[in-house]
Amino acid sequence: MKLGYMTNAFGPLAGLGGGVTSMKDVGYITMCDDETAIAAIASHGYKYIEIFEGNIRNYEENPEKFLEICRKYDVSVLGVYVGCHFIYEDALEDELYKVEKVASIAQALGARHIVLGGGSVHGSGIRDEDYPKLARGIDAAAAVVRRYGLIPSYHPHLGSLAEKPEQIHKLFALTDIAFCPDIAHLVAGGSDALELIRQYYDRIKYVHLKDLSSSGEFVPLGRGVINLEAIIDYLKAQGYSGDWLVEIDGYSGDPGEACGVSYEYLKGKIL
Description:
With about 270 residues, this protein is α/β, with parallel strands linked by helices. About 40% of the residues lie in helices and about 20% in strands. The longest helix is centred in the middle third of the chain and has 18 residues, at about 130-145. The protein starts with a strand and ends in a 5-residue tail after the last helix. The mean pLDDT is about 95.
């Protein structure tokens, strides 16, 4: 069991500029100094990180440079998050090209997980045929990830085709992809997170922990309204041996504080 922290809390979220005109370059990136974020995470006791695809693509020609930063602070890369549209069949080839690039770099960095997110919603709304397309796209991306010896999981996300519980069930009936539950996204999307975890427990290899305030803001663990302890206790009782990732993105407070508060919350629970 490994516990990591996501670097995306340490700067605003953006998309790679080249993606405006080239689908193969679309991707998430955190606008932060990677070393500053890693130093802050390490200072609170974490030994692993997850990072966005765009940030590691900056090291495509020199992954050793990123590894030097990690060694300096005694942390390792646990996972990389990759976002795709998935449903546009004529663009899927280029999205898979991107997934392969990211998986190759992630392998060189010693990562274990690739977290896949996405599933575009049309301006005109969701169409029934989008779910088979999403499932096929996810399965194709997962096959690429596995070729690099990494574990692919799908992360249901607000604003995607898999936001609400009925949408998640609809998708998971069409693919056997592993499930990366992001607790706060599930709750904000209307799910009973513990019930979903019970239903899809056999698919879970990686869990994203975050809390949610009554106003809908992502907040440090233990500062929100979610009964995280019940979820952690259930997973432990089932003998869960996968990995954990704390992700407090979009928090209006200090990201370093969120990092430390969340680590303290987990003491005696999974630490």
